[in-house]
Amino acid sequence: MMRKNILVIGGTGLVGKVILRILQGRNPSYNLFVGSRQLGKANNDLVIDVTNPKTFNCITDNKIDLIVMCTKDSNNEILRFAIQNKLDYIDITKPTPDLAVAYDLAKANKQNINSHIVFSSGWMGGIVGSLVDFVEPDKRKIQETNLYIYYSIKDLAGKSSANFLAENVCKPFVVYKNNAPKEVKHFLDSEKFNFEFGIGKRQAYNLDVPDLFILNQIEKIPTVSVKMTYNSKFVTSLMGYFQSLKIFNIMFLKERQLLFGSSGNGDQTVFEVIVKTQNKTKRVSLQSVKGQAELTAFSTVLHIEKMLSETLSNGIYFSHQMHSSQEIYKALNSYNTINLKIS
């Protein structure tokens, strides 16, 4: 078997580092490269600036098989490069509007795709779709899916999520009710939700994650919503006040970035997926003891392993479309810092 060459662009960032660690532990035969703007000290460090395609030559020079995007590529330069050069590609960073653009670009090039192009920008590396599949394999029966997120400000968080909220907190985004798109704003429309794992009842507020787009537009689930709460009830209600009083609107971007930037040393992350059919409500509760970065990275590693397994035909995928949901459930369940409950 040929040694697989994998390039993690943004591999010096929080999630990128964890992906590299887990990949190395599980697949010592993979050859791992780190792409970033500054040249690192190791032999496998490559200088890649996503805004400058002239820096991409090192990708073909090093015979890279698969590119993992852990950094923002607003113009989709790397996506285009991967399609042109028949390279496997997975992106875990795109917020909803960017994801829709990238997906359209890939579809427009469908005839030329001779590799796996995978969009994995859903919540926690796009595993929500697989968990929905697991509890209800027949999507036509599903009338509604709700995602509830418990987010700890003590968690280690990458810059990108904080910056996304800072940039988009004042802009409306879309949720779906009976297939009708409805514009809402972050941190409004609070709803009381009882979280598992000892967290209990919390007020949860609107949050924009790509699963809204994926579950409605791709999986055709008529009603989809996402709500989140912070570990601090004070911070959660503060965000609600700030939004309803339009305080975010008068803050500078830098100030908003400081507000959303979390500088914790690590904490648990929890999310709950509620799937409603005509006669049943099913619920999956997931806890990652080591927080968001670990869970996102582990999910991404599962996708990478699948892409390189030689069992997958070429084409465009959202990450959950590559797997059987049983595989994903089993892998998550056997990982030592992840706990799952189904009810």
From TrEMBL:
It comes from the Bacteria. This is Saccharopine dehydrogenase. PANTHER family: CARBOXYNORSPERMIDINE SYNTHASE. It comes from Flavobacterium shii.
